[in-house]
Design goal:
- The protein is an alpha+beta fold and about 200 residues long.
- The protein folds into two domains: about 110 residues, Roll (Archaeosine Trna-guanine Transglycosylase, Chain: A, domain 4); about 70 residues, Orthogonal Bundle (LON domain-like fold), CATH 1.10.4060.
- The protein has five helices and seven strands, in the order ββαβββββαααα.
- It has a five-stranded mixed barrel.
- Helix 3 runs parallel beside helix 5.
- The protein is globular and about 50 Å long.
């Protein structure tokens, strides 16, 4: 178990997507810098950090990440070719970047501070229908697509899983990742759902 009080030095993988604690992240790795990162994570059983890109692109020059991200641990992997990996990673802990630098091979490194997970909070009565909505979605999509055990009575878990499903911009999802109060996160999810009902995506 990583100590939130101790700064952690990890490689970063800036993406145009947001990873939440307990969330699933499928990846196809082919750039040399990320092949080296994957080799190291598998060898050392260590984590890497996933951050939403604030400026730049997923490939090429190192992108500028948002300050808050989520550590990822490789759970499943295949190597279909010598210079290719197919990974399934799982989100673990939110963190905030304290310092960052780029290695000679182009891999972005960072010193991060792990953020304490919120205390368990039951889903407030005002948002109980969101837990029911998520439960229906899990039934329709299938249990295998969601982390186990299911925590439909936990406000943060419900907010994160619903946000993963919503067809909103990564920047909107980042707002939920950065939210410290699970009840406030659920209120933000409620607002996004209301906006989607008013202006459904094409």
């Amino acid at each position: 178990m990583m100590d939130p009080a101790q700064p952690l030095e990890i490689p970063l993988f800036p993406l145009r997507s947001v990873l939440f604690p307990a969330g699933f992240l499928p990846l196809r790795i082919f750039e040399p810098r990320y092949l080296a990162m994957t080799d190291a994570c598998l060898r050392d059983q260590s984590v890497f950090g996933v951050c939403l890109i604030r400026a730049g692109f997923e490939t090429g020059q190192p992108a500028v990440p948002h300050a808050v991200g989520c550590t990822a641990r490789i759970r499943e992997w295949e190597q279909p070719q010598p210079e290719r990996y197919t990974l399934m990673a799982t989100g673990e802990n939110r963190f905030t970047i304290q310092d960052s630098w780029t290695r000679d091979d182009g891999l972005l490194m960072a010193k991060v501070r792990l953020l304490e997970p919120p205390d368990p909070l039951p889903v407030p009565d005002a948002h109980h229908h969101l837990a029911e909505l998520l439960e229906r979605a899990i039934t329709q999509i299938g249990d295998a697509q969601f982390p186990s055990p299911q925590r439909l009575d936990d406000a943060a878990w419900v907010a994160n899983r619903l946000t993963e499903l919503l067809p909103v911009t990564p920047e909107r999802k980042q707002q939920i990742l950065e939210c410290e109060d699970p009840a406030r996160a659920l209120a933000k999810v409620e607002q996004m759902l209301a906006e989607l009902r008013e202006d459904p995506p094409i």
